[in-house]
Amino acid sequence: MNRRTLVPFLTVFVALSLVGCASNQSLRPATETDWQPPGEVSGDSARAGRLWQVFERYQGTPYRYGGTSASGFDCSGFIATAFDEALGRQLPRTTSQMLAAGDVVERDQLRAGDLVFFRIKGKDQHAGIYMGGETFIHSSSSIGVTHSSLNGYYWRDRFSQARRFD
Predict the structure, then answer these.
(1) What is a single Pfam family found in this protein's UniProt entry (predicted)?
(2) Of 56, 48, 101, residue with least CA distance to 76
(3) Tell me, what's the pLDDT at 45?
(4) Which CATH architecture does the domain made up of 42-164 adopt?
(5) What is the pTM (predicted TM-score) of this model?
């Protein structure tokens, strides 16, 4: 292609490329608030619904080591608060105490409301509440109260066990 035919070709190419950018649609990346809980939640749907309501109330609350209130939660503090507010159920306060209580549940038998535990730096030190659809809610040290996937990049290889508190 010579310069004489290349200039019109490039002009048309650039014009067509810009038309694609001129859309008046408002496109934005998905955010945490766009996320909706799974439609089909395994286990007791009333129990799951009450836990989702607590999650929605505290979503975004910052992480605070030892925290048990809306000013900040650690992972076990969020779990204990969620169970108390949603289910009227008192759970042990720390992750290690939670690990020593409840009934062991195999991963393929998880139901909404089961606690899931994760091994970080060689020991079980993080926990969340399984909500169905491979999703769990928790207080993350980096984000605060949030939801994550058991199959997510960070969590998938750190899952260690689950407990049920019926």
Answers:
(1) NLPC_P60
(2) 101
(3) 82
(4) Alpha-Beta Complex (3.90)
(5) 0.75
